[in-house]
Amino acid sequence: MSASQKSFDRIKVLVVEDDQNTMLLIKRMLLDLGVVNIFTSDNGADALHLLGSFDGQDLVNVVLCDWKMPHMTGLDVLKQIRTCDPDMPFLMITGNADVDSVIEAKAYSVTGYIKKPFSMEVLRKKLRIVQRMLDAKESNAA
Amino acid sequence: MTNAPGDLARGRLLRDLIFSLIMAAMIAFLTIDIVFFEIFDVLSDEQRHFWIKVFDLAVLFLAFGSAWFAYRRWTDSRQEIARRVAAEDDRDTLREQLTQVQKMKAIGELAGGIAHDFNNLLMVIDGFGRRAASSLGDRATLEECLNQIVSAAERGAALTRQLLVFSRRQAMEKTVVTVQELIEGVQGLLVHTLPEQFEMRFDLEDPASKIETDPNEFIQAILNLVINARDAMPNGGRIVISTKEVQADAGTPNWIKFDIRDTGQGIDEVTMKRIFEPFFTTKGRDQGTGLGLAMVYGFVKGNDGRIEVSSSVGEGTEFSLFFPSSGGAVVHTTEANGEERRGCGETVLLVEDNEALLNLIKVQLEELGYNVMSATGGFWALEIDEDYSGTIDVLLTDVIMPGMSGIELAKAMVESRPDMKVIFMSGYTDDSKKTGSLPEGATFLQKPVKSSRLAAVLRERLEENLEQQQAS
Ligand SMILES: Nc1ncnc2c1ncn2[C@@H]1O[C@H](COP(=O)(O)OP(=O)(O)OP(=O)(O)O)[C@@H](O)[C@H]1O
Ligand SMILES: [Mg+2]
Fold first, then answer.
1. Is B117 or B335 the better-scoring residue by pLDDT?
2. Regarding the domain with residue range A3-141, which homologous superfamily does it belong to in the CATH classification?
């Protein structure tokens, strides 16, 4: 497909990642890719809080979430989100894509994965797909 | 589900309104606070301090109130949406149950008649069976008895078929069939149903014309009409089934017309007004259910067709059924039984969120000779779309999937792959209401999809590709 350098200014991302350094890296990458709307949270509870806030669903249109986190795992976050928003794009960030968590995640209709460690190109591709999903949704609704 | 966004918007409006009211109140209190107690120095110090505290408390109270209110509004709207979705689901199941109940009621009515008929049939079988057993030496009697038994069994089978059609749960499965094929199906059944004093004639003007329908229900409908004709001619007579294609207005498909004409007693004007009413019958209680024409009517309407009757008392009756002609290619049912139409290594992208079903269809496609890539959702499909540099000949996708519907997926993909054919599969007959209309030129397959049907539809779409290439 044409690797057009689409700008991602319509993407509004929420990153949930407990590891400070990884978080920083992801944020850098997102900024470099031209994503301007970035929310971050180092734990699931805060992330849910943001999504559950007044305009949470307007503020964010894609969630990138680490899978292995203390207290609340990525799966817990996904489950919670799915109870009220079955369509929110949710990409899980996994270290070792272990089979069980993948199957579990699919049961809660996870949107996709990003395997750690990932390059900027990978992230760009994933975001481009998210953008295509959003575009298609919009044109279908119109 | 469809009204959720509307509700959200309305909820937001209300929320904003109440918010601005609270804000206005807070500002008002503060203004009074400042204007009256700071600027106009009307009260004593002590009184002033007291009133300032009162107003500050009021402002504080309002602030907390609004925060609490905001929180409640938010949780309420969430729950409300969840409830609504649940209610919608309930309504759907209710409606389903209702039609089911109606059917069961009809079956109850039918059952009386059928039990009666079955008893007669069993008596015939029993009687002739005994007779056969006691006359084993007499070849002629034996043959006659066995013939009677076989024909009784056939009548029994016809009866159960009628019941089954009635009690079927799933939506109709429509296919494109030729007039010829339909009439052959009718002939197959009629040979056994009509006694000899009836003359049956068929007259097909355009046997190759096609309509889209459920062949089983079609045959059932024609059978009902023929049986009515038979009943109208107690002393025998002629039944003619003729078909032809009739021109329609420009822009609309032609009509395929099926006439069923008899030389029976006819229908008088008073009766004519009521013949399509369910349970209306002029036959005795044990003989007619009055459901025959009601079924025919429902069937015709369900196929976007119409029905006309003309009759003159003492001379005969003619029922005419009109169905829109279908331009689509014929999916040959004969092929479905025999060898399937195989693929030639074309690439199919299969998208289905149910993994078990995905695997099943994948295996079927591979057995048919296709190169299959599969995805459990729109995102994965788009990933394949980005990664795979070869051609994808066909996108075969479920319609309703979480996150991204099949229709949205198709929209996103055809932009970059304009030659790709799209085939939708769904368990619902009318997904378009939930997910927006199907794109033009798309093919729609009703689940459960039989391997043979899948094979036929795939070939149909892929070969239309070839034709286009040859044409250009
Ligand atoms: N070809 C016909 N000639 C004369 N009368 C007819 C003809 N077809 C239908 N009718 C009239 O319409 C009535 C309703 O027909 P319908 O098929 O709905 O019920 P039925 O034939 O009485 O019962 P069932 O179909 O269950 O045996 C019949 O009772 C009969 O009076
Ligand atoms: Mg009848």
1. B117
2. Response regulator (3.40.50.2300)
Expressed in angstroms and rounded, the spacing between residue A61 Cα and the centre of ligand 2 is 59
Please tell me the distance in Å from B8's CA to the nearest CA on chain A: 11
Question: What is the 3-class SS of A87-139, one letter each residue?
Answer: CCCEEEEECCCCHHHHHHHHHCCCCEEEECCCCHHHHHHHHHHHHHHHHHHHH
Helix or strand holding residue B456 (H, E):
helix B451-471
Task: Note the ipTM here.
Answer: 0.85
Smallest CA–CA separation between A47 and chain B, in Å?
16
Give pLDDT tens digits for B457-466.
898 888 875 6
Name the band, by pLDDT with cuts 50, 70 and 90, for residue B364: confident
**Interval between CA B239 and ligand 2 midpoint (Å):** 15
**What is the predicted pLDDT for the residue at B434?**
47
**pTM score, whole prediction:** 0.45
Q: Give the number of other Cβ atoms within 10 Å of residue B149's Cβ.
A: 19
Tell me whether B216 touches chain A (CB under 8 Å): no
Measured distance CA(A56)–CA(B8) in Å, rounded: 13
CA of B151 to the centre of ligand 2 (A): 21
Output the DSSP codes for B407-423.
HHHHHHHHTT-TT-EEE
Q: List Cα–Cα distances, B186 to B171, B179, B246, in angstroms.
A: 22, 11, 22
Which atom number of ligand 1 is nearest to the Cα of residue B281?
Answer: 29
Structure tokens at B337: 């039984």
Task: Tell me the pLDDT tens digit for each residue of B205-231.
Answer: 888 888 988 887 787 788 889 889 988
| Per-residue model confidence as pLDDT tens digits over B107-118 | 555 555 566 667
- Please indicate if any CB of chain B lies within 8 Å of the CB of A138: no
pLDDT band at B355 (very low <50, low <70, confident <90, very high): confident
Query: B74 to chain A, minimum CA–CA distance in Å?
Result: 7
Residues in A closer than 8 angstroms to B353, CB to CB, are: 109
Long-range contacts of residues B115-123, Cβ cutoff 8 Å, at least 24 apart: B116/B286, B117/B155, B117/B159, B118/B156, B118/B159, B121/B152, B121/B153, B121/B155, B121/B156, B121/B159
pLDDT higher than 50, residue B44: yes
Which of B79, B386, B417, B438 is best to mutate for the A interface (most A CBs within 10 A)?
Answer: B386
pLDDT for B1: 32
Quick one: closest CA in A to B391, which residue?
A: A1
Mind giving me the DSSP string for B259-288?
A: EEEE-S----HHHHTTTTSTT--SS-TTT-
- Residue from the list B81, B379, B407 with its beta carbon closest to the beta carbon of A111: B379
Q: Is B168 helix (H, G, I), strand (E, B) or coil?
A: coil
Amino acid identity at B215:
P
- End-to-end Cα separation, chain A, in angstroms: 25
Which residue type sits at B445? Answer: L
Q: Check CB contact under 8 Å for A132 and B81.
A: no
CB B209 within 8 A of CB B325: yes
Between the CA of B269 and the centroid of ligand 1 the distance, in Å, is 14
Query: Comparing A134 with B449, which gets the higher pLDDT?
Result: A134
Give the CA diameter of chain B: 132
Sheet-wide strand order for A62-66: A37-41, A12-16, A62-66, A90-94, A112-115
Most confidently predicted of A2-6, B22-26, B288-292 = B22-26
Q: Give the list of residues 6+ apart from residue A132 with CB closer than 8 angstroms, or none.
A: B382, B412
